[in-house]
Design a protein that fits this description.
There is one protein chain. The protein has 30 residues and is mostly helical. It contains 1 helix and no strands. It starts with 8 loop residues before the first helix and ends in a 7-residue tail after the last helix. The model has no long low-confidence stretch (mean pLDDT 77).
């Protein structure tokens, strides 16, 4: 099942928070 990702900013923040919770830190590079 493939879905196009269409996230609001709030949803994206939640995804990043979840990533942080799982992996300890995000892969975001400033």
């Amino acid at each position: 099942m493939i879905k196009k990702l269409s996230l609001t900013d709030q949803e994206m923040d939640q995804v990043l928070d979840l990533h942080e919770a799982i992996f300890g830190e995000t892969d975001r590079k400033e």
